[in-house]
């Protein structure tokens, strides 16, 4: 079957595609003006426009990087042929002088729970292995309409349930920083010089593949999804910018849903400016998603903030949770001082129901999951069991074979909370607590606070062997604690990589803004990003393939 | 209505309810079975939105087989609330099995964890369904704007005949606990 043959080829990106590992003709390739971290993609369109590099060459370079960083397991499917075709079409447009926009010819990756026409969409689950979607998710379609080159689908936790990208059927995602010079230098020397056997750290989840793909320079931007922190958590661990937009701003049509009332597509990029550009092409009302707001969205360029004295930053004291590492606490305090010293008003605020938000999230998430996973019965798509005694037993067998323990556990918990005798005590109660949490934020923003500054993870990325010692639910409970309140209230939030930990791994901080005020949020984030000068990852593989790209790197002023 | 038809109508309604619970939206299986909901599909879709969660409000309490003494209110004590009857009922509702003791323990842990919600005083607080509750859910014009993609949609189905999805015989309930291949058997 044609589709099978193509899918098989995609899964093993060993197909030669020409240009390979470097330029022989002496041209320096993509020259990024300014620090790569700042202008990671902004120079790319300029370079494409000026003909310094063609979209096809850029695409081939990225594909070569994807191949050489295969050990990261960031990609489930690499769509080489279609990517090169898209790159060729983009090249023709540039030659005519008619690029579609800033994203024309830019390689991007998409998390594997977004439907992509003609490309396998698996959600890292046996249930959807081999499922070729007949349509593109709205966000994917919007990116393709802008001329972006879709490199492939990235790895995740199964059905986006998890906080480490370790629970998918295609294996765990490795954090590119595990192989960085910064991490290797700080690691305790081991008898085996290769760290990949045991020392590698998790990428965070559930959009770990997308974060790793962006962090390892295999693409310029990636789409993730954010239900409880699934974009911001891996962004923090992989040292990239992870934006969770306001609920209702970006269409969820085509995003295989986890929690309908909290899911949003997330954006992962290497700098805040890029995130704003991608947001500009994705945001806006979609008639196919009735939960998108009908307000007209105006794409914006981020102003460069010079004066923060009018800014009021809130530091929620409840986010100083037990288990927060002293390193993160120190970075958080330093960031608050940074704003204070620059003249901003930094105020301690209170979000009193923070302690209950993870419990509330747990109940609501499992309840909605129980409903959303009901669609997987093998009849119309996805895995189907051979059992054929009755419809019910076929459904049961299909779901038994297709879902992992994590997914089944959540479905069963969700159904428990939705039983008639439990409905009021758990589900409705959780909805009431959700209102209390949302009201906390309303009160704080109503008192004059512009942006909240909080930590985003409890510590830097931990080694995989340690991570798997606890089960998925425990880990999610621990790791989502600082991120999911923003999902409950539907507020925009962004992770900005701030500093390197003592182990040489990224630490990020989270900014939470008011509803639909992404411009203000990202402006402040951009200012902060400029102040902290987060260092670039030093990866051998990247150096091989992008000679001349990584011009210089700055050391973090926070370490 | 003859008694036989009344019985059939009642069975269809229960099945329809179960299907509605599981599917969240109306799914018209072209098997000649009864309509899955009394509301016409477009109305249901508009009421629910594209993919809104559908709480299992309609599960009748008597559906929990309490033949072995599940008479007291189930959520009294945590340990009492996760009985074999409840576990069996959950397996039937979710059409997902517990697989092993770890699965059951996972549920107990989840319930234990959720108990903390009781500490919060929510007197006089309304439940929050959606953060966009202040806005009107709009209706678009009831115009057919896309469709005619039967062949494409059928591509992903494993078993089909002409333009139909093929399902095994319906109206057959899941086997009882003792006859099912489940970890809970003999608990």
Automatic annotation (TrEMBL), chain A:
The active site is at 111 (charge relay system), 206 (charge relay system), 230 (acyl-ester intermediate). GO terms for molecular function: ATP binding; glutaminyl-tRNA synthase (glutamine-hydrolyzing) activity. It is found in: Mitochondrion. GO terms for biological process: glutaminyl-tRNAGln biosynthesis via transamidation; mitochondrial translation. SUPFAM superfamilies: Amidase signature (AS) enzymes. Keywords: ATP-binding, Ligase, Mitochondrion, Nucleotide-binding, Protein biosynthesis. The keyword Nucleotide-binding applies. It holds the Pfam family Amidase. It catalyses: L-glutamyl-tRNA(Gln) + L-glutamine + ATP + H2O = L-glutaminyl-tRNA(Gln) + L-glutamate + ADP + phosphate + H(+). Residues 68-181, 196-522 form the Amidase domain. Its EC number is 6.3.5.7. GO terms for cellular component: glutamyl-tRNA(Gln) amidotransferase complex; mitochondrion. Allows the formation of correctly charged Gln-tRNA(Gln) through the transamidation of misacylated Glu-tRNA(Gln) in the mitochondria. The reaction takes place in the presence of glutamine and ATP through an activated gamma-phospho-Glu-tRNA(Gln). Belongs to the amidase family. GatA subfamily. Subunit of the heterotrimeric GatCAB amidotransferase (AdT) complex, composed of A (QRSL1), B (GATB) and C (GATC) subunits. This is Glutamyl-tRNA(Gln) amidotransferase subunit A, mitochondrial.
Automatic annotation (TrEMBL), chain B:
GO terms for cellular component: glutamyl-tRNA(Gln) amidotransferase complex; mitochondrion. Pfam families: GatC. One of its GO terms (molecular function) is glutaminyl-tRNA synthase (glutamine-hydrolyzing) activity. It is found in: Mitochondrion. It catalyses: L-glutamyl-tRNA(Gln) + L-glutamine + ATP + H2O = L-glutaminyl-tRNA(Gln) + L-glutamate + ADP + phosphate + H(+). Its EC number is 6.3.5.-. It comes from the Eukaryota. Residues 1-28 form the signal peptide. One of its GO terms (biological process) is regulation of translational fidelity. HAMAP family: GatC. This is Glutamyl-tRNA(Gln) amidotransferase subunit C, mitochondrial. It comes from Gallus gallus. The gene is GATC.
């Amino acid at each position: 079957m044609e589709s099978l043959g193509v899918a098989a080829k995609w899964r093993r990106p060993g197909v030669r595609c020409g240009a390979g590992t470097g330029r022989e003709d002496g041209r320096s390739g993509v020259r990024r003006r300014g620090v790569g971290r700042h202008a990671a993609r902004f120079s790319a369109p300029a370079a494409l426009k000026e003909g310094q590099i063609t979209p096809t060459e850029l695409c081939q370079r990225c594909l070569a990087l994807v191949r050489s960083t295969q050990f990261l397991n960031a990609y489930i499917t690499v769509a080489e042929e279609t990517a090169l075709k898209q790159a060729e079409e983009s090249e023709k447009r540039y030659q005519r002088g008619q690029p579609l926009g800033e994203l024309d010819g830019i390689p991007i990756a998409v998390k594997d729970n977004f439907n992509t026409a003609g490309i396998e969409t698996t959600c890292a689950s046996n249930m959807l292995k081999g499922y070729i979607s007949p349509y593109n998710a709205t966000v994917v379609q919007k990116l393709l309409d802008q001329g972006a080159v879709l490199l492939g689908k990235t790895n995740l936790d199964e059905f986006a349930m998890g906080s480490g990208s370790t629970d998918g059927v295609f294996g765990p995602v490795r954090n590119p920083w595990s192989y960085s010079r910064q991490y290797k230098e700080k690691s305790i020397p081991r008898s085996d010089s290769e760290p990949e056997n045991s020392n590698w750290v998790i990428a965070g989840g559930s959009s770990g593949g997308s974060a790793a793909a962006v962090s390892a320079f295999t693409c310029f931007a990636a789409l993730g999804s954010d239900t409880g922190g699934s974009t911001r958590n891996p962004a923090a661990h992989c040292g990239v910018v992870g934006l969770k937009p306001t609920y209702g701003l970006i269409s969820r049509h085509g995003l295989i849903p986890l929690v309908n009332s909290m899911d949003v597509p997330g954006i992962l990029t290497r700098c805040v400016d890029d995130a704003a550009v991608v947001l500009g092409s994705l945001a806006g009302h979609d008639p196919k998603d009735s939960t998108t707001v009908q307000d007209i969205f105006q794409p914006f360029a981020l102003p460069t903030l010079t004066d923060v004295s009018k800014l009021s930053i809130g530091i929620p004291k409840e986010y100083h949770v037990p288990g927060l590492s002293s390193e993160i606490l120190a970075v958080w305090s330093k960031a608050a001082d940074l704003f204070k010293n620059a003249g901003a008003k930094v105020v301690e605020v209170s979000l009193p129901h923070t302690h209950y938000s993870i419990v509330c999230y747990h109940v609501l998430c499992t309840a909605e999951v129980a409903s959303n996973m009901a669609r997987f019965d093998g009849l119309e798509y996805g895995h189907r069991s051979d059992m054929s005694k009755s419809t019910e037993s076929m459904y049961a067998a299909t779901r038994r074979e297709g879902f992992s323990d994590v997914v089944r556990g959540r479905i069963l918990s969700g159904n428990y909370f939705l039983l008639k005798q439990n409905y009021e005590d758990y589900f409705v109660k959780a909805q009431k607590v959700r209102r209390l949490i949302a009201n906390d934020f309303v009160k704080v923003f109503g008192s004059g606070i512009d942006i909240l500054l909080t930590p985003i993870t409890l510590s830097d990325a931990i080694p995989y062997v340690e991570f798997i010692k606890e089960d998925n639910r425990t880990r999610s409970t621990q790791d989502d604690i600082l991120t999911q309140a923003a999902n409950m209230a539907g507020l925009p939030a962004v992770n900005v990589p701030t500093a390197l930990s003592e182990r040489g791994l990224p630490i990020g901080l989270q900014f939470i803004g008011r509803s639909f005020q992404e411009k203000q949020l990202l402006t402040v984030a951009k200012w902060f990003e400029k102040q902290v000068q987060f260092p670039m990852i030093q990866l051998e593989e990247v150096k091989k393939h992008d000679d001349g790209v990584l011009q210089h790197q700055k050391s973090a002023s926070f370490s | 209505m003859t008694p036989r038809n009344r019985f059939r109508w009642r069975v269809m309604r229960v099945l329809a309810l179960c299907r509605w619970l599981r599917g969240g939206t109306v799914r018209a299986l072209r098997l000649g079975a009864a309509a899955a909901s009394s509301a016409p599909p477009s109305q249901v879709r508009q009421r629910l939105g594209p993919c809104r969660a559908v709480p299992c409000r309609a599960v009748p309490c008597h559906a929990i087989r309490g033949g072995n003494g599940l008479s007291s209110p189930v959520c009294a004590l945590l340990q009492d609330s996760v009985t074999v009857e409840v576990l069996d009922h959950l397996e039937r509702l979710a059409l997902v099995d517990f697989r092993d003791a770890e699965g059951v323990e996972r549920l107990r842990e989840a319930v234990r964890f959720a108990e903390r919600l009781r500490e919060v005083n929510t007197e006089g607080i309304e439940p929050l369904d959606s953060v966009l509750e202040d806005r009107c859910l709009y209706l678009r014009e009831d115009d057919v704007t896309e469709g005619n993609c039967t062949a494409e949609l059928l591509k992903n189905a494993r078993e089909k005949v002409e333009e139909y999805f093929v399902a095994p015989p319906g109206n057959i309930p899941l086997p009882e606990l003792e006859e099912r291949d489940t970890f809970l058997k003999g608990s």
